[in-house]
Amino acid sequence: MLPPFAAAPRRPGASRTLRPSWFPFPRVPAFLAPAVLAPGFLASAFLATEARAQDPGARASDTPAAIVGHVDELFRGASSQGRVTMEVVTERWTRSMEMEMWSLGQAYSLVRVLSPSREAGTATLKVERDIWNYLPRVDRTIKVPGGGMGGSWMGSHFTYDDLVRESHLVDDYEIEVSFEGEREGTSLWEFTLTPLPEAPVVWGRLELEVRKEDRIPLEMRYFDERGDLARTMTFTDVRTLDGRRVPTRLSMHPEDRPGERTTLRYEDLRFDVGLEADFFSLQRLRTGR
Amino acid sequence: MKERSFWLRIGWRNLGRHRRRSVITALALAWGFAAVVVLNGIMQGMGTDFIRSGTDLMVGQLRIQHPDYEPERELWNVVGGDDGIHLPSLLDRITADPGVREASARVHGAGIVATETTSRGAMLLGVDPEREGRVTLFLQGLTEGRVPEPGAWEVLVGSELARQLGVAPGDEVVLVSPASDGSLGNELFTVSGIVRTGIPEVDAAQVVLDLEDLQALLALGRDDVHEIVASATHPWDAPEVATRLAASLADGGSGDGAALEVAPWTSFRPELVDFANLIQGANWLILLVIFVMAAFGVANTMLMGTFERRRELAVVKALGMRPGLIVLSVMGEALVLAILAVGAGALLATPLVLWLMHAPVDLTPVAGEQMFMDTLFRFVLRVEHSWAFPLRGAVGLILTAVLAALYPAIRAVRVPAAEALAGR
Asked: In whole angstroms, what is the distance from residue B52 CA to residue B70 CA?
């Protein structure tokens, strides 16, 4: 199913006194990060569930938790390469960036801006929990410091924090089916994910809608601890990329900023491209080679 | 007429009957009064100094911002809003207010400051160093180098931040910050100096640069500022000046008055107000302690006096003096005593007050400096001139003395005439 969207721990007010709203963008949880930086993760997850969907017998491995757990395992090690257009719409401006990205599992990723020309060449490298930016304008590579992780990544609704968080959907949540049937003409499941007591998660709960027909996710809703909707992520434009059916348009709408969104549109995705960990080097960040 | 002030004359004469005792009691009261006046003056001085230090260091006494700027601090919520302002003329209009000493514009940002090897999160503050130096004091905390030259792409780095980054004046740093148009602002700067404010969070994160350099980094216009800070002629006038400024800036011309908000330090640093109130509370406590001591002193003196005059009181009672007049004569004695004491106390306090007003004693070499509530607290004995408190103290002390004489006076009335005359 959908491990990549697991919201990793976020503590909105935790460092507030130290960082008094320095950052001009809202902090957004982790759910999108792996999707941004590890498209292969997303796609391989679907592959796994599709294979299972063809299995006629309802087995123990069809329980939501089992599928999630299996997918979580499956994803690690999958490499990918792709092109994505990120559109950020805010109250004040709208911008669109074209980016090329490479990833290896959840730990390694590299993103390079292709356009607009003013920012072309700007690149982000993630290795484990560290992030570096290469800034062609000043020709410098900069490691994003702990105190800067709350900053916006490339002007989007993501923070650097979101990028480095690893998802632990299966470890951190209890997953159950809260709805099964037709909604607006589509046969779907709705799963409710409740954080386990010890889980370092700030969400009160998550709701995930998955289309039964092909096990494609439709919408993920994030609720805060008071039970109020905090943000919604929608998955649309299901297409076949490199032989796999995936939703190619992911759109995040922060509830506290009506009308604003960050949308990712996958133009091209290739899976299992044989990248090794040493591909993700500072040298490649700087030169692209 | 003569009949009416009769009790006061009796009181005055009775004081002379035991001169030494009267003088000693009066001296005790005088000392108490002088102490209250001087201590209060010092406390007021400390309070004002503390507030000045708390506001003048960085935040200023008056702050003008876009109404929506705090607490989110969105880059585009600039003073004047989307309609904009003409910055030089706005600054002129602010400083035209008689309650404003100086004003300075600021831009705030947040981002990353990095060297070749290391990086830290940073608060970016853009100022006009010359104007800023006339409003706040933090630029005086320069420990190395000099303030940034306009247009030279130079930065001041907080002392702790500089230590963590390992930079010194002359070194290169990169500033990276999300700009107001959504792009990623990044630029090379040269460290021109190191600044230490004493506020730990500031010293560990602050990067100060020229206003226009930061505007360029954040893709803001020349007149786009997030804050105008101003200093008031007297800190306690700030709320009044803020109200006046808000009114004059709203109708005075340049565009939409709703897109700026004037706040005095009392609203954005309420903890300093709390502290000032604490000082006020301590003042009242001192007053209370000294007055209670005065009351017992007076009561004791009067009690002794009436006790000695048992026979005499018995005689005047026997002769038909009205009890009210006896009470009045005893209280009159206390009244005269207190007035004399307050006079003597004023004579005692005046030179001390004048001295500490004009030549404050700096105890910093002995007591050191303390950082407290983001404010540099220095032990300086400086008296703040005020008529209200000494006057109130004088009236209070006299009233206390008169009331303290009430009990001895009532005892005097109750002297059993026959027994006292019989010598029993």
From this structure: 23
Domains defined along chain A, listed by start:
25-78+87-93+153-271 (2.50.20)
Is the backbone peptide bond immediately before B71 cis, with ω within 30 degrees of 0? yes
b/e burial code for range B125-160 (CB count within 10 A of at least 16 → b) = bbbbbebbbebbbbbebbebbebbeeeebbbbbbbb
Residue of B nearest to A115 (CA): B183
Contact by Cβ (8 Å): B97, B249: no
Q: What is the number of CB-based contacts under 8 A between chain A and chain B?
A: 95
Cβ distance B125 to B139 under 8 Å? no
Distance from CA of A233 to the nearest CA of B (A): 21
**What's residue B424's pLDDT?**
67
Helix (H, G, I), strand (E, B) or coil at B177: strand
Neighbouring CB atoms inside 10 A of A199's CB total: 16
H or E segment and range at residue B194: strand B184-195
pLDDT of residue A2: 31
**Partner residues linked to A268 by β-bridges:** A83
Amino acid, single-letter form, for residue B296: F
Single-letter amino acid code for the residue at A250:
L
Q: At what angle do helices B310-318 and B270-308 cross, to 10 degrees?
A: 70
Neighbours of A21 (CB within 10 A): 16
Smallest CA–CA distance, residue A247 to chain B, in Å, is 27
Contact A240, A231 (CB under 8 A): no
Whole-structure pTM value: 0.74
Q: pLDDT tens digits, chain A, 289 residues: what are they?
A: 333 333 333 333 333 323 333 333 333 333 334 444 444 434 333 333 333 334 434 444 567 776 555 545 444 447 888 899 999 999 888 999 999 999 888 788 999 999 898 889 999 999 988 999 999 999 999 998 887 777 788 888 877 877 776 556 677 888 888 888 899 899 888 888 888 888 777 678 888 888 877 777 888 898 988 999 988 989 899 888 887 777 889 898 989 889 999 999 989 888 888 889 999 999 999 988 7
Residue B370's SS3 state is: strand
Name every chain A residue with its beta carbon within 8 A of the beta carbon of B186: 135, 137-138, 140
In the predicted structure, residue B125 carries a pLDDT above the cut 60: yes
Whether pLDDT at B210 is above 90: yes
Q: Are strands A130-135 and A123-127 parallel, antiparallel or unpaired?
A: antiparallel
Query: If contacts are CB pairs under 8 Å, which of residues 60-99 in chain A contact chain B?
Result: 88, 90, 92-93, 95
Alpha carbons B18 and B93: distance in angstroms, whole number = 68
Q: Where are the domains of chain B?
A: 6-55+272-421, 67-259
- pLDDT given for residue B114 in this prediction: 93
Identify the pLDDT of residue A166.
Answer: 58
- Predicted confidence at residue A27, as pLDDT, reads 34
pLDDT for B50 equals 83
Question: In one letter, which amino acid is B12?
Answer: W
Between the CA of residue B360 and those of B33, B36, B49, B275, B363, what are the distances in Å? Answer: 21, 18, 12, 22, 9
Which is nearest to B259 in space by CA: B277, B246, B241, B270? B246
CB B323 within 8 A of CB B413: yes
User: Are B111 and A142 a contacting pair at CB < 8 A?
Assistant: no
The helix or strand, by DSSP H or E, that contains position B212, with its residue range, turns out to be helix B211-217
Q: What is the pLDDT of residues B297-319, one digit of tens each?
A: 889 888 888 888 888 888 888 88
**Does the CB of A18 have a partner CB in chain B at under 8 Å?**
yes
Q: Are A95 and A106 in contact (CB under 8 A)?
A: no
